[in-house]
Amino acid sequence: MGTVDERKGGRRQVVIIGGVAGGMSTATRLRRLDSDVRIVVLERSGFVSFANCGLPYFVGGLIEEEEDLTLQTPEQLFDRFRLDVRVHSEVTTIDRDRHVVTVRSTDSDLVSEVEYDQLVLSMGAAPVRPRIPGYDRVRTLRTVEDAERLHLDVDVAPKSAVVIGAGFIGLEMAENLVAQGIDVTIVEATPQVLPPLDPELAILVADELEAHGVHVEVSVAVDSIEERTVTLSDGRVLDAELVVGAIGVRPDVSLATSAGLELGPSGGIAVNDVNQTSDINIFAVGDATEKPDAISGATSLIALANVANRQGRRVADHLAGLEVSAVPSLGTAIVKVFDLVAATTGWNERRLRHADRRFRAIHSHPFDHATYYPGATRMAAKLLFDPDDGAILGAQIVGRNGVDKRIDVIATAMAGGLTADRLADLELAYAPPFSSAKDPVNLLGYMAENVLSGACDIVRPDEVDVLVAQGWELVDVRAADEHARDAIPGSVNIPIDELRDRLFEIGVGPVLVYCEVGQRGHTATTLLHELGINARNLDGGFKTWSADRRARGGAVSVNAPP
């Protein structure tokens, strides 16, 4: 074994293990800041700079050429940045005392050493591979090589496929396999698809999957995998010529642990504000590291490319002598599922409850643009905020158009420290093809303002049965045809325009009011308050109640009761 790359002229050498988002951001940013430092990038795969988020679309044929996924080759990176990039180079050990890494060529098995002054770890995360009999047949999707193998599998035209896991990658894979004419079943061990969403929004994503022919199996696990089938934990057997594993990822910390570096509470590499590990000469970026969480202030694992890019840039700044500060992560993410889009930022309700964190939730169903302009579609939006100081804790949006814009606005508001009610004051771009004069984000702000000020007392969907059992009268203020089409069982229909003339049917209350999405219900509740009647409005109206009911396995009326 010999040392490669003897130092030239005493120049500082920074070695980066792993490319893609975090590693290549570190390398290219550092070169822009320091033209003298030697930068060596060691990548165990054959590709150092590629669009890993585009891999499902290559498998599905939407991206036709593999070259379109490759952002930069080692040759291009040398020509432009004078980076010494070596693919098929797997680092097997780190000698912290000697400042040396051992490298094995995955092409030839030759072993060599590379010296470093500073070392940056960017190993990413590895797909979870559970101990399920037959799991060695399962394909995962993390690298270009993985995509190539899946592409070849799809080329032989399998008739059936099972996707294990209904997270972001699982849903993208399901869509792209359907695009290749394959009969797809998604199997998810938890009670819903897309676990980052709360159930009443996740059910909308499940509806979209089923509308496009995907079979959705939740609350059931894979028990074993056979040659052409998958056996579920409830004994059912599914046809599965192709099986794709998308259960999740774990931080790749094997090198870090073998080198004695400290790990954080979530199992990722522990780093400080400048992404320095417990060794002052070793830094870590990307999916393998713990990130400061914007909601809790603690650390968590957030596997997102933009976060990895940001960390890589900050490490390069620090290595170049610039002042750097840590930026907490919100975990903002988005996914396309056929014609639907689902996005989230911050924490969901389940996580807030688990942390015993006080919060209020509001739901709205606004149109993505002015309804008088053709093509307007509804979205479902949920905002979570602190009931005391109004701090925004999270948001989720599901819809067909304009979802990305709204989630980004809320994420930016959170980063800027705006409270939920301040969303009402944001001056956002408006023209009929793009929005309404009151943007969906503004509407969430108005609703939050009403709740925080006490002007409106809302009822959660899961509280309806409890209040009715306590004697609250349930009043549907929608039009008669809406009530006849679908209604909450036991409700009385008094259209809002008839409410003043039919108060005798209500009495002194208390009254639980609902409409389709909550807007007419709010108007009716305000009127009843003015008339001295105790009334509360159902948050998100019938749409949210019915979605929540279906998500929790309850029955939803098909026709109003007589």
What does this structure look like?
The structure is a single chain. By secondary structure, the protein is of the alpha/beta class. It has 4 domains: 3-125 and 250-319, FAD/NAD(P)-binding domain (3-Layer(bba) Sandwich); 135-247, FAD/NAD(P)-binding domain, CATH 3.50.50.60; 339-453, FAD/NAD(P)-binding domain (3-Layer(bba) Sandwich); 458-551, Oxidized Rhodanese, domain 1 (3-Layer(aba) Sandwich), CATH 3.40.250. It contains 15 helices and 32 strands. The strands form 9 sheets. Strands 6-3-2-10-20 form a 5-stranded parallel sheet. Helix 5 (168-178) links the parallel strand 12 (160-164) and strand 13. It starts with a strand and ends in an 11-residue tail after the last helix.
Tell me the β content: 15-25%
In CATH, the architecture of the largest domain is 3-Layer(bba) Sandwich
How would a textbook summarize the main sheet? 5 strands, parallel
Form type: globular
Query: Radius of gyration, rounded?
Result: 27 Å
**End-to-end separation:** 86 Å
User: Helix count, per DSSP?
Assistant: 15
CATH class of the largest domain: Alpha Beta
How does the helix and strand content classify structurally? alpha/beta
Task: Count the beta strands.
Answer: 32
> If strands are numbered along the chain, what order do they take across the biggest sheet?
6-3-2-10-20
- Estimate nothing, just give the exact number of structural domains: 4
Low-confidence stretches: 558-562
Mean pLDDT: 92
| Name of the CATH superfamily of the largest domain | FAD/NAD(P)-binding domain
Please name the CATH topology of the largest domain.
FAD/NAD(P)-binding domain
| Helix proportion range | 25-40%
